[in-house]
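thought: fold this chain, then report.
action: predict
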Amino acid sequence: MNAIRLRDLANRLESAERRSRHLKRLLQLGQVLTTEATKADWAKRVPGEVLAAASCSWAAFFVAGREVDRYFLHQRQCKQPHLTVRPAGFTRAAAGDAWNSDKPCKISGSAFGLNDEGCWYLPIRAHNRVLGGLVLPQACLPQDRCGDGFELLTLLCHQVSLAAELSKLHSDLVTAATFDRMTGALNRNAWLEQVRQRLEAVQSENIHGGLILLDLDNFKEINDCLGHAMGDQYLIEASQGAHSALRAEDLFCRFGGDEFTIWLEGMTPSVLNAVVERLMLKVGAVASKYQKKLRNGAPNLGLSVGVVHVGKDSCLQLDALLESVDAALYGAKAAGRGTWRLARDGGTTPQSSC
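observation:
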């Protein structure tokens, strides 16, 4: 065997070994990202794992969203990626024609606000929808005349896309199991589970709070006179009105039909009462809007509410609290609706109507 053939064989063997090493790193990357896909900070982990697998100096993962776009830039010398928030549509505009590509594309890093150098843009998809993309320096993987570098980049893109699809599927399942599809409020089971956990904290930390049960008065009139589509819209707007009167940490739930429950903490009874008044005003404004759509003489739309104050001397069994707040709501209904009642010592205390 002559020297030229020996040298060619050696080069092929070296190329095969190098490719094997890269494929092994890509396999490890896929395993890590797939394992991490069920975690909330999955996107944050992507650029660091890609950086290690691709043996490059930095990696950026762009995630397109409805309200904002985010990108995580991870540099080799840093332990954590840096998060930058951009207006929605930024990633798509920066990627240009590469946005809809199904293969890695060469692009300038300056388009993404990165270094002015040649980069690879790898579109990341889930369920045939573009979620964003990876941006890597062109020197991240070897590029030889056999095209191994481009093939490895394509495999890298595929691995991350598979993990992204799994992450999105898990997120969708969690959302479906946690939130009401129509209103976006917590669903009954998720709310009950979270409130039981909160009650344990109330008992150990002596926190004041409260439970609110609200019901939309004469909701059936909307469905009967204006149709179920309008009834659904009324539910959505009433829910949004109620939610706007609450804090981010308050647990707001569609308990069933046109009933909603709210768990609040860290409030004295007087502050809790003020929140109820605000709820009455917010939802009442929505009810007034829809009242105008009904025929003259139609029953009044509005809101009836039951309230239970929770403190160190309260019963902290959720079933008992729900029975009390339901009795208070019944008292508000019996008093003519459009008002609220406070459950106290097994009875109800009348409150002013809004």
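thought: worth noting. The first helix runs from residue 3 to 36.
final: tokens above.
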